Amino acid sequence: MKKVLEIVPHFGFARSFLFGRMKYCVENGLEMHLAHSYADGCDELCGLEGVKHLTTEIKRVPSVKGDIVAIYRIFRYIRQNKIDLIVGHADKGKLLACICGKLTGRKIILFAHGTSFESRTGLTRKLFILLDRIESSCAIKVICVSKFLVELRLACGIDKAGKAYVPHNGSCRGIDSKSLWNPEKIDIPKLQRMRSQYNLKEDDFVIGFCGRLVRDKGIEELVKAFELFKKEYNQDAKLLLIGQKDIRDFIDSRVEAIIQNDINIIKTGEISKSEMPYLYSMMNLFVLPTHRDGFGMCVIEAAAMGVPVMTTNFTGSRDTMKQGFNGEYINLNPFDICQAMGKLYKDKALLKRYAQNSRIWVERNFDEIDVWNSILNCYEEVL
Asked: Which end of the chain is more exposed for a tag (fewer CB within 10 A), N or C?
């Protein structure tokens, strides 16, 4: 039985993006291993997945001592468990996979969930591209979560032609549209209780966002657009922000003040996966004005719940929707975002058609079994 070790920056990453698919790989003949930082409940959850695991502190920021310890522990684990293939996720996971793979002579696959250089300029951008090139040269395959990422990495000279691979139509895990992300599975009394919890009424026009509350996700442009939208279209509209702030990318203090003081902006903080479908169900429109995104899972999650979507056209999120079918692309400035939202607010028939098509789009293109099969086939090909 072939053995695969996946390295992630933190356990929550595996819980969000790998679990389900790792169990599927186990059920289809692979022995799956996971290296991650410790988190409460990790032993139980890995057991449910049928995954063997190594807990070692993996720091998201550079740390000479911490990184050396992580490399040593992963190196030793690879040798002891006779791992055949190493898969690296996110910046630190990819770096550790390359180092440990080269030290042990194991095959390497890298998972490109996005880019660190896309919104950077000058020397910093060049250094990040150089690091990606070095890492790519270590790998047999690079799994990219969107077609956009393949094109971008090829244009920047990061991957050689034929090395990058998109699983099915994109994403790293697909969507369980039959069970979790299914409007028919919504418990109406629970939905009503949650509406009350967030002071939302059924006839409120709710614009939604999900992601880290950072500049890179376009939160500044969205909040400014929402303020314009209230003045021009609906002063009682609500903006539902799902996510937390990130110390690595603070938003402007003036925008932060608007978020804190505007009673029409509802902040949820971190939300459990089981409650996410209910929050999407409260939305009339989902907007992700991201500056950079490898794919944008939140867009297809919202679409799976029958919500019309809007996102930018120059990053990986472009592959999560179809222009004129279940949503529209937006320009990255407050005025244009406001006008795009206003167009759908006024055209109820178009809004309804996009809502109906959103679920169709996800079922056709991002079913999780199709994505999992595609990733499994890539692993087996390399092995």
From this structure: N
